[in-house]
Specification:
The complex is a heterodimer.
Chain A lengths: L1 H18 L10 E8 L6 H20 L10 E8 L4 H13 L4 E4 L3 H12 L5 E3 L15 E3 L4 H18 L6 E7 L2 H13 L6 E8 L7 H10 L3 E5 L2 H13 L6 E5 L7 H6 L1 H4 L3 E4 L7 H12 L6 H20 L4 H9 L15 E2 L2 E2 L5 E6 L2 E6 L15
Parallel strand pairs in A: 1-2, 1-3, 3-4, 4-5, 6-7, 6-8, 8-9, 9-10
Antiparallel strand pairs in A: 10-13, 11-12, 13-14
Helix pairs in contact in A: 2-12, 3-4, 5-6, 12-13
Chain B lengths: L3 H31 L7 H19 L7 H24 L3 H23 L14 E4 L2 E4 H23 L1 H11 L1 H6 L4 H23 L9 H16 L4 H22 L6 H13 L10
Antiparallel strand pairs in B: 1-2
Classes of the chains: A alpha/beta, B mainly alpha.
């Protein structure tokens, strides 16, 4: 195993060295930006989706004339692989620093972002977090760290508040909840927040079940679900386990009043909807989602699909994170790290496809960032809450 | 703590999961137990078989169960060729070389899968994926029942091959005394390759039974092969009955362990048994004393 990792890191380093030779000279014609994701290992699928988003953004920026305030300088990606491990991510930051990048965009998973932002802070290297929902990433007072999207506290609070709105509007059919979550930082953190918030709104959390990655069989969990018979099932896990869980629920003929996923469920995954149309129908999600009223999101979706890929949240989150960075470099008029951090702090970036409005960073967190509620309706994903982004009326409860 | 309405289904479910473990362990026990080859590529080979089943379904619309007559011989040929052309040649007759060669093969296979299929998780949808059968209070998925029956059938077949056929006699002879077998006119290289082929053919069958209820990605083999090694040690190296019963036992332990200790601790029971067997009965439950 270690041999393989060694080989991969070596070859990745060699490949990036060949692809991106150091450019000498005082006035760079290109601005080097690190694009760091877990493109191999357990999180490879998500990491590769992120990378696609970042590269598409760079392509768009360069095609539109590059950084105009710097004489049309192009952005050049320096690709890095975090190998689905925090320490590998931190090592890539060291390499990127040596290679002279002006900023880094990455690194998808919360645990990896914790390591990479800290490593980048040593060099005052601006780090835009593209997904990384754990709030610990933003709470360490790192001046170089900026997160455009919402953290999991914001998502969990929105999820619970909106669930309550749905439930009240339907005449309060749901009272009990069961949470099924994966065991790492993301799943556990989200589940803890939910379990704390829900009783305040009058819901009884009947059971919170943690499972490993990978879990090969969900029959036990579903059997317990059968015994508990919750009105609402809330999963917080990654795709493989999510798919097995929902499929097993369908086999065992368990149909709660709602399946309400927080961060990463069927109703924010075109892949799941395509592969399991029956199981997906009616599922509600609270997740990162684009502004459906913005025409550019449909265009971007079409372009991603033309590459034979799914338009997943990883793609548009990283796409927008890269555009945010380019906007800051434009205003900084410089590839200097401190100048870019300063420009990010003052960012009012509003020309994007996310439902966040104009950007405003407080301690590195974009205060306008919010998740949207989506539901799978007739084999498509539609926004149901909040009202200003609504595409269709929610169906709740699924079964009376 | 749990009533029989949960306990019984969990038990049945453990048995059906265990049958798949047994099927994977059968191939391993033949290669590992009889020929003393520690096959690190076993998990990767399972992954290759799963992708074969996946491709046959997605490209040609061949049902996973109807793919059995294609995937099983295909895996046999792959195993035969691997042993004959790569493992045997590269190992120069040394066991420690074989270990490295199979490890190398697994790296090549996994990264080739990563290259061709990306790390994307893939599943197939069949008409019976969501069909369940009621056994008392338990609702069991049809694919799992088929896998259970299939595992019993395949292990019966293996027992018959090893016990009653000339090939089986040759395999046992080579396992016991390689040089003696050679002197008796047995083509040892051929028997080695046949055994490796049969071992991988078992994986082909396991893949056909597994995919309707599971998924495939380049890393999928790892989780199974660790359990399969445990099953082989538990049942006794080279014992087919041991692999079958060991697999079923491990499945049940995992299922009940998950129920009582929580899902993320379910595998503790497996490895507790593993350690206990190594301490108190190192030859395994059904193995002969060395």
């Amino acid at each position: 195993m270690s041999t393989r990792r060694h080989f991969m890191s070596q070859s990745a380093a060699a490949a990036s060295a060949m692809a991106f030779p150091l450019v000498g000279g005082a006035q760079p014609r290109t601005i080097k930006v690190g694009v760091l994701h877990p493109v191999t290992g357990a999180l490879a699928y998500s990491g590769q989706q992120c990378r696609v988003g970042a590269l598409m953004a760079i392509e768009d920026i360069n095609k539109a004339g590059g950084i105009k305030s710097m004489g049309g300088a192009n952005i050049e990606a320096l690709l890095g692989d975090a190998q689905s491990q925090p320490q590998a991510g931190a090592a890539e930051i060291e390499k990127m620093n040596e290679a002279g990048v002006s900023a880094v965009v990455g690194a998808f998973a919360s645990a990896i972002c914790l390591a990479t932002t800290q490593a980048a802070a040593k060099y005052n290297l601006p780090h835009v977090v593209d997904v990384g929902v754990a709030d610990q990433i933003m709470e360490r007072g790192l001046k170089n760290t900026f997160r455009f999207g919402p953290g999991y506290r914001k998502c969990a609070e929105a999820a619970v508040a909106n669930l309550h709105v749905l439930n009240m509007a339907a005449g309060k059919p749901a009272r009990t909840v069961m949470i099924v979550h994966e065991e790492s930082l993301f799943g556990t953190g989200t589940a803890n927040l939910l379990a704390r918030e829900l009783p305040g709104y009058g819901y009884e959390v009947k059971e919170v079940i943690k499972h490993a990655n990978p879990t090969r069989d969900f029959n036990n969990i579903v059997l317990r679900m059968k015994a508990v018979n919750p009105d609402i099932v809330i999963p917080a896990n990654y795709y493989n386990e999510y798919a097995l869980l929902v499929r097993t629920m369908q086999q065992q003929k368990i149909s709660p009043k709602a399946i309400y996923s927080v961060l990463g469920g069927a109703a924010s995954s075109y892949k799941f909807v395509k592969e399991f149309p029956d199981a997906a129908n009616g599922i509600i999600d609270c997740n990162h989602w684009f502004n459906p009223k913005d025409k550019r999101s449909a265009e971007l979706k079409k372009r991603v699909e033309a590459k034979g890929l799914f338009f997943s949240y990883e793609v548009f989150m990283t796409y927008t994170a890269m555009r945010l960075l380019a906007d800051a470099i434009e205003r900084a008029k410089s590839s200097d790290r401190a100048a870019i951090i300063d420009a990010l702090e003052k960012s009012t970036f509003a020309d994007h496809i996310m439902p966040y409005g104009a950007t405003k960073f407080v301690n590195g967190q974009n205060t306008g960032a919010q998740p949207l509620m989506t539901q799978v309706v007739k084999n498509d994903i539609k926004v149901i809450i909040p009202r200003e982004y609504r595409e269709t009326d929610p169906v709740f409860p699924l079964r009376a | 703590m749990f009533d029989s309405g949960i306990l019984f289904p969990s038990l049945i479910n453990g048995l059906t999961t265990g049958a798949v473990y047994a099927l994977i362990a059968l191939g391993l026990t033949l290669i590992y137990g009889v020929l003393h080859i520690i096959n690190f590529a076993h998990g990767a080979a399972l992954m290759v078989a799963l992708y074969a089943v996946y491709l046959l379904k997605e490209r040609f619309g061949i049902d996973p169960y109807l793919a059995l007559p294609l995937v099983v011989p295909g895996m046999f040929v792959l195993g035969y060729a691997l042993q004959r052309l790569i493992i045997n040649r590269a190992s120069h007759g040394k066991d420690e070389n074989i270990l490295l060669v199979t490890l190398g093969l697994s790296i090549v296979m996994e990264n080739a899968a990563l290259l061709f299929f990306k790390s994307d998780t893939r599943t197939i949808e069949t008409a019976y994926t969501l069909t369940t059968v009621a056994i008392g209070p338990a609702m069991i998925a049809l694919p799992k029942l088929v896998a259970f029956a299939g595992a019993l059938l395949v292990s019966g077949l293996l027992l018959w091959i090893v016990g009653k056929t000339d090939l089986g006699r040759a395999i046992r002879a080579v396992a016991k005394e390689k040089h003696g077998a050679k002197l008796m006119g047995i083509d040892v290289d051929h028997v080695y390759a046949m055994s490796f082929g049969i071992g991988l053919a078992c994986l082909g069958a396991a893949a056909c039974f597994l995919l309707p209820a599971y998924y495939v990605n380049p890393q999928v083999g790892g989780g199974f092969v660790l359990v399969a090694f445990t099953v082989v040690v538990l049942g006794g190296m080279g014992s087919f009955v041991g692999a079958l019963l060991g697999g079923l036992l491990i499945g049940v332990v995992e299922s009940l362990g998950g129920l009582y200790l929580g899902e993320s601790l379910g595998q503790i029971g497996i490895f507790a048994i593993f350690i206990a067997v190594l301490l108190f009965r190192p030859q395994g439950l059904f193995g002969a004393k060395a």
